Each structure stands twice: as C-alpha cells, then as structure tokens.
Amino acid sequence: MSGKILGIGIIAAALIFGAVVYYTQVFYYYYDLPAEEAEVLLTPLDGTAPRAIAFEDFEGIDATSSPIRYRACFSTSESPQTLDSLFERYEGSEPRNAPFWFGCFDAEDIGDEIAAGTAHVYTSQRNIEFGIDRVVAVTRDGRGYIWEEINECGDKAYDGTPLGEDCPER
Q: Is 70 exposed, middle or buried, given 0-12, 13-18 or 19+ CB atoms closer than 10 A?
C-alpha cells in the first residue's frame, strides 16, 4: 500500500511542477507594453540613428526572462515600397512564435508573407542588447510586426565561437 501512495505522490508532484513551469513560461514572465510609450523605429539607409515611422493600433508584449521575447503588432499608412527607398532591409529574418494568447502575432502567417514578398523586413535597431537585433516587418496592406532576432555576434557568443573584430563590445 505504501508503494502506491509513494507512486501517486511522485506523479502528483511531477504534474504540479510541470503546471508551474508551463504557467511561468507561457504567462508569468510576460507583460504588456503600453501603447502610449511605444515607438516603431527603422534604421535609415545611410546608417544614421533609427527614425520613427507613423503607426497606430499598437499591441505589444515583452518578458523579463529572455531578450528575444519582444513581440508587437501595429498598423501603418506606410507602404513597403516607400520604406524600401528610405530604410535598411533585414535579410534572413524569421519570426518566432508568440504565446497563443497574443493573437495578433502569428509567426507562421508572417513568415509566409515574407516568403511571398508581400511583407518586407527592416532593421529597427542593431544590438538593442548584445547580439540581439530588433526587426520590423510591414505588409502591403499596412499591417506591421516587430520581434527580435539573434544576430551573427549573438550566435557566436552563445555557442562559444570567438567573436571577431566586427562584433561590438559586450
């Protein structure tokens, strides 16, 4: 009889632990970004400081547990064709999944639009944190998305490869 009780106790402890880990990863660490404090910045082609573009309907989240959990959605009157002539494109970007409850950000749909050429991705800010770039995608119909990417220096730093001279100081 004591073996059954011990087994049930172990299973119950594992289930409780799993539920706590799930809750913290999917809900606890995230917080909403106030729309009134939001900015949508893009880096000009001449490499000067990022400039703000006009936007509305901003929704954003971030988390304290990771530098790549920032996600945001917005709408803009700017078209990708106009932005292409003014701002730096970001190559090789792939949106990361957002929590299921953040409904405006669907990484698969955004990725499909990027692949189809109906969304263009721009550099917002390089090395917003060491090894992390913030990027902005804008679609033809004026929807915009923001997320953070691990750049080449970040890849090297996280896998232990020597950084090289082109990476900024940590």
A: buried
Residue 23 lies inside a defined structural domain of this protein: no
> How far apart are the C-alpha atoms of 51 and 88, rounded to whole Å?
11
Yes or no: say if 121 and 136 are a contact pair by the CB < 8 Å rule: yes
What is the per-residue pLDDT across 107-146, written as a single tens digit (0 to 9) for each? 999 999 999 999 999 999 988 888 889 999 999 999 999 9
CA angle 11, 16, 19 (to 5 degrees): 125
Residue 102's Cβ-count burial label (10 Å; 0-12, 13-18, 19+) is: middle
Dihedral (CA of 158, 166, 71, 139) sign:
negative
Asked if the structure places residue 27 within a domain, the reply is no
